Structure of YdcF family protein:
Amino acid sequence: MTAQLPPSIRPAVRTLWDYHDLHHVLKPSDVGIGLGSHDLGVSTCTAQLYLAGTIPLIVFTGANAPTTLERFPRGEAVHYREHALSLGVPDEVILVEPEARNTGDNITLTRELLRSHGTEPKSLTLVSRPYQQRRAYATCRKLWPEVETVQCASLPLALDDYVAGIGDADRVVNMLVGDTQRIEVYAEKGFAIEQPMPDEVRDAFRQLVEAGYTSRLI
């Protein structure tokens, strides 16, 4: 594994990275939803938003994927909760949804969990990996249309810093390529709303596929 991007693909990776980051200016919202993944930074960001007063309630959602079983053996959401507690978030403001296995599940199961607690939020902050923002937003807008405001957040890391933190450049690039494909495929399947995709993003996606970054393609 290497924690540095090969110079030959870095411009294309940067193009996809910028496309998926929605650059939302965050405002206070009713609930923060930490979307499960291999990236513990999602929990860190969610905790920071709570401690800053941006969100009063947190839902961590996620079971396991093959890539997270070893790191989070008790489930992504459970480990996210434990990490947030270690950062000073009080237990009483955290709900755990431990069954979701994809982003659609994250949204629908979180909605059901909140309803079971008598909460019908009008505004949400989706907290994810930086390159999951656009897909998370499109999915939430499709599956939870009654929410008035959806904003996305991630740890504000530069691309190279994020890759170094994950410690595996190939994993990051493969995930970026997979998420880019899913923007259109999931909209076609009715799982998400449509999103614009500029030509330079399509070109960068094709370059990375041709370079062999295909392990996360559908």
